[in-house]
Amino acid sequence: MNGPTDAGWQGHAERLVDVLARRGALRDDRWRAALLDVPRHHFVPAYYTGPARDGHWQCHTPGTDTPGWLRRTYSDASLTVALSELGLWGDRHPVATSPPPELTVRGLHALDVENGQRLLQLGIGCGYTTALAAHRLGPGRVVGVEIDPDLLRDAARRVRERGLDVAVRQGDGSLPVPLSGDGAPFDRVLVGYESDDVPAVWVQHVRPGGRLLARLTGGLGGGGHVLFRRPAPDAGTPSADPPRLVGRFLDWTGPLPARRVAATRRAVRRPAAPTGGPEAPGSTRLAPVLLADGDSPLVLVAQLHLPPGTTRARRSTGTGTAVTRLQAPDGSWADIAHATDRHGRHETREAGPTRLVRALDEAAAVYNDLGRPDRLTDFGVTATMSGTHVWHHDLETGPRWHLGTIQAGDTGS
To answer: Over the stretch 62-98, which tens digit does the pLDDT of each residue have?
Structure first.
């Protein structure tokens, strides 16, 4: 298929490839060939920017400025390719993106894909990353799963139009999807959305000796990409040993779309309403602005001590005082003042069945006991069929915490 954007796109792709190579993200000539042969604009025929102050998103198509549109499409930028339908408050949210090419390339390199291997992508979105993998691995080697039937149909069509052989299946990648006929388990698994846990089905998807790459984050935004390996049985080790994935946080990461729990674009997750009842005053030494850094190990530790799904937002009180609000799925909430009192503490107010400030103080104490680590790479994750744990420093001897999951009924609908 040819169109006005097909003239001259190779020059933009070559410049993008050169940028990624200079940054050290692109090191394999086979991925370089894929980036130069698979046109990103074919998989992103339109993208959205916004929202503006009026709450509206702007849709960008080639229109009359094809060269400018191509420059943006072949920049190292995340492109929003699909929006939700209008939510309860008349707003829309991104439900699918084409991630920044550097993030995509780093992920494909981390998986260390080899000839003859089979790759599963969960959450294919517009299909661009899926097409790159199919170009690299060849016919019948890539399987993609997507929950949104419209995205799935469009991605499958665009992949076919490029002459690539990919098997696509509709389903929630965090729940069991019948893939036995597609050659499961797989050598490599790439998760295209953020998750707050490692579902048991992911462990099953990876063959012994295989790898899985996923971005794990919590309600506070803490976390990052984790490269998991499923250990292969040693000589003399029974193959019936419980399967598990073991990995560490990487020294690079980037945003991905949130996991969607339903195919309809009306399914926008909302936090539970804050609970009423008596408010308890208090204070904490922890500066709430520290919770805004998602790359900080402190935020990761805080998430492990707060109820799963607890969110953070900056707001102003009626007197104009800046506070950070923590809100848990059970309706518990806490406001932490940004300013300090004469004792160097931050005043707090909270209500609900869970004492969030106490949990936050316990997290800060643990963080100090760990020696105030400044790198997420000091932490690892182990996932089994029965649960997921985060550990510090050493898998066997370091402290560890259960990574809980938020129940679907706790998030609204």
So the answer is: 886 788 889 999 999 999 999 887 765 567 888 899 9
- pLDDT at res. 409: 32
- pLDDT surpassing 80 at residue 47: yes
Give tens-digit pLDDT for 209-260: 999 999 999 999 999 999 999 998 875 555 557 899 999 999 999 999 988 7
- How far apart are the C-alpha atoms of 304 and 386, rounded to whole Å? 18
Instruction: Please report how many Cα atoms fall inside a 13 Å half-sphere around the Cα of residue 76, on the Cβ side.
Output: 18
Q: How many CB atoms lie within 10 A of CB 347?
A: 17
Nearest to 324 by CA among 303, 347, 345: 347
336 bridge partner residues: 324, 348
Torsion sign across C-alpha atoms 4, 71, 60, 258: positive
Quote the tokens at residue 48.
């959205």
Give every CB contact of residue 25 below 8 A, 6+ residues apart in sequence.
Answer: 102, 105, 106, 109
- Cβ contact 105:20 at 8 Å: yes
Report if pTM > 0.85.
yes
CB atoms within 10 A of CB 104: 24
Please list, in sequence order, all residues whose beta carbon lies within 8 angstroms of the beta carbon of residue 240, skipping any fewer than 6 positions away: none
Strand partners, 158: none
Spatial distance between the Cα atoms of 311 and 176, rounded to a whole number of angstroms: 28
Which domains can be identified in the chain, with CATH numbers? 80-249 (3.40.50.150), 280-369 (3.30.310)
What pLDDT, on a 0 to 100 scale, did the predictor assign at position 7?
67
Q: Quote the CA–CA distance of 80 and 97 in Å, as a whole number.
A: 4
Is there a contact between 111 and 213 (Cβ–Cβ < 8 Å)? yes
Write down the pLDDT at residue 410: 34
Other Cβ atoms less than 10 A from the Cβ of 68: the count is 12
